[in-house]
């Protein structure tokens, strides 16, 4: 795990927008040079991105996803963990 | 110096109303921008632009918020009595990153009140308005009226506009060369096209900033389709669903990476374009057989 499960927050310098049904995450400012690309998020990823505007714990995020998408807590936690691992790897978490 | 010259420049229905103490010829902008000189009755966007000379190399104010590489860097500053401004520090394209700033383009957040400050240097000097500064102005200003600039070639095929998108080397210029031979076809630009969407549909426009071939036309056409080119062993064309086309179009657009509010508008414009214009993937060899394949998308076969 490459993040602190008690305090997770995303980088601010991005715009997330639904374009023709696709959730596009576009970097702004200095992030453009570091990332050099546009990221496509699925429904869960887009939801988590919005929630991560404020600092959250892994437990809070898993509970939020379980509630929002009506899935089992264990499955939600696994999904959240996978998403966070992925975005942490490309530097999208603070 | 007072602004003795009023030089209206209209690109993609965007009027850039230039006021300058120097004439267009003295600024060195006539060759590239001359075909775009003129004032339409009802422009869709209006930009007031003052040109002023600086004896010293101009210095942008504020912090760098986005670095586009060797061509320009964007600063943001709060100027007393003016408010928040963007200042683009422009270099000549052939210069290195460490070169002196050649020009500073100051813009208000809505990109309709601009000042370009430049230092003249040498007998062959020409204003960056003809190249990077002008391109940056259109790139930003068009976003606020439903438009975007794309890395694309574009043509008017007997009244039907077609845009060809693709990465560098994918064949945009090759396509333009093939189509140029066809009766009733006007190639507007091989490298930089503008597109604007509204309730009725979308329209594509040639811009002054072409690629190496330098073929540019001040011309517009209703946009019938956007074609994403991929080189392939066999010719074939297929529709791309809007959701799948979203990232393809966005990646080929010149986006306002310095301003989140403008970026939201830009992405909204991509969304509007995708609701009005079909997008296709063309796999092709560089040969004339591609032309009827593309035309089959918007032409009804003759009985």
Describe the structure.
The complex is a heterodimer of chains A (94) and B (303). By secondary structure, chain A is α+β, with helices and mostly antiparallel strands. Chain A has one domain (14-89): Arc Repressor Mutant, subunit A (Orthogonal Bundle), CATH 1.10.10. Chain A has four helices and three strands; from the N terminus they run E-E-H-E-H-H-H. The longest helix of chain A is centred in the last third of the chain and has 17 residues, at 73-89. The model of chain A has no long low-confidence stretch (mean pLDDT 92). In chain B, 20% of the residues lie in helices and 37% in strands. Chain B has helices at residues 24-27, 30-33, 132-141, 172-180, 242-252, 260-276, 290-295; strands spanning 5-11, 14-20, 45-53, 63-67, 72-79, 83-90, 103-107, 113-118, 147-157, 160-165, 185-189, 192-197, 202-206, 220-231, 236-240, 279-284. Chain B has an eight-stranded mixed beta sheet, with helices on one face. A five-stranded mixed β-barrel of chain B has the order 9-10-14-13-12, surrounded by four helices. The model of chain B has no long low-confidence stretch (mean pLDDT 91). At the A-B interface, strand 1, strand 2 and helix 1 of A face strand 4, helix 5 and helix 6 of B.
